[in-house]
Please model this.
Amino acid sequence: MWICPSCERIFQKKNQQHSCKKYPIENHFKGKESMKKLYQHLLNEVNKQVGKCKVISLPCCIHLFGNYDFIAILPKKKEIEIRFILNRKIKSNRIESHVPVSAENYKNCLRISSQDDIDEELLKWLRKSYQFKK
Model:
């Protein structure tokens, strides 16, 4: 593991190419204020029930890091898109898409729109992603 001394992002390889551009987290919620409370609830539940994580705000999205970058969060006007990597496609109506990221690993994507969506099923998937070694 390597931590960039400029932006403090965590990578698998030393000197991995990336952008160190930091982005204020508040900018992700401009015009999406109702989603900030949902994001905060998700972050609290992840820290309590999944594992302690570090928040990195980038221009594209918000990343949560445990041992690895395990969740990407993209706030929308009426929902939050969540992307997480596992070594399988999750078979559930909640999952909107599966994007291959390597020969064996998939980015599983879903959306949440209320605190009720942050349930045991979602937290179980996020725990597996948190513990997953890419």
